[in-house]
Amino acid sequence: MIRIGIAGYGNIGKGVEKAVNAATDMELRAVFTRRGTDTIKLAGRSIPILPIDDAEKMSSEIDVMVLCGSSSSDLHDHGPRFASCFNIVDSFDTHAKIPEYMATVQAAATKTTAIISAGWDPGLFSMVRALSEAVLPDGSNYTFWGEGVSQGHSNAIRSIEGVKMAVQYSVPIQDAIDSVRRGERPDLTARQKHLRKCYVVAEPAADKASIEQKIVTMPDYFADYDTTVTFIGEDEFIANHQKMPHGGLVIRSGKTGSNEQVIEYSLKLDSNPEFTGSIMAAYARAAYKMAADGLFGAKTVLDVPLAYLSDKDRNTLIKELL
């Protein structure tokens, strides 16, 4: 059995727990948290819930540590720290900073396998973009997200003074999708690809006009998009905006000779964090296998053979899937 540890027990950590409990070749050994250990109740069987500062004490009892902290506030520290003594998997998702982050993890992972950015984007979508580009070199990649909840954008709104609750939905623009599917290869700006819909519960004395202005002008999150801000009551928010659906499309439009070709991959998710947790559990299996083969260092989904993700042996995979 592959012995799994979870560092961070938010929505993604809970998703990893469910995926590990459902796997036939894994067992959850411990959960590590910065919160009070008595505030956490696990969905599965009784296992240790320990302070995250004590994690290294269990390095001999855990085969793969799955890091479920925030890309903005946790993983820059947790990635290299845990890669120095555990095989790890994380879902670091700040695309522009992946090379820098990977370098810090690589320096620490001299005797471990550290698979970073193993979610669905970056992650599965990255694999599709790479495969599609290799097959259709004369072409263009397009990625659309949603309709669904963006956790990073929602967190950004909640950081604004006067905001009590908030959620942001990324909405792809259908005309843009249709154009790509027709093989037109349009040159699309961020504003032409997606809308941002924000639902906000403001504190009673908050300046709603100021909150809205801060949202729509926020760089890196909303300034480059058509963004709507709708203020609602707490009861409506709890009733209608507690789920975390998401999804998206990767489309490559290209040519082979004089013929137009289109490759499309899509996701429709009822629970973004649970699906992300399932991906991370599969890559934990891969990290375990790669470490056993001496394939140490920082890796991405582009470095991991597909067969390493499965709990089936090579002959079965060939027979059933090839």
End-to-end distance: 27 Å
**What is the 3D shape?**
globular
Strand order of the largest sheet: 3-2-1-4-5-6-14
Uncertain runs are none
| Protein structure class | alpha/beta
Q: Name the helix and strand elements from N-terminus to C-terminus, one letter apiece.
A: EHEEEHEHEHEEHEHHEHEHEEHEH
Average residue-wise pLDDT: 95
In what range is the share of β-strand residues? 25-35%
Range of helix content: 25-40%
Sheet with most strands: 7 strands, parallel
Number of helices: 11
Q: Which value, in Å, is the CA radius of gyration?
A: 21 Å
Number of strands: 14
Topology of this structure?
Blueprint lengths: L1 E6 L3 H12 L3 E8 L15 E3 L12 E4 L7 H9 L3 E4 L7 H11 L4 E3 L8 H12 L3 E7 L2 E2 L1 H8 L4 E10 L1 H8 L8 H4 E9 L5 H9 L9 E6 L2 H7 L5 E11 L2 E11 L2 H21 L4 E3 L14 H8 L1
Parallel strand pairs: 1-2, 1-4, 2-3, 4-5, 5-6, 6-14, 10-11
Antiparallel strand pairs: 7-12, 8-9, 9-10, 12-13
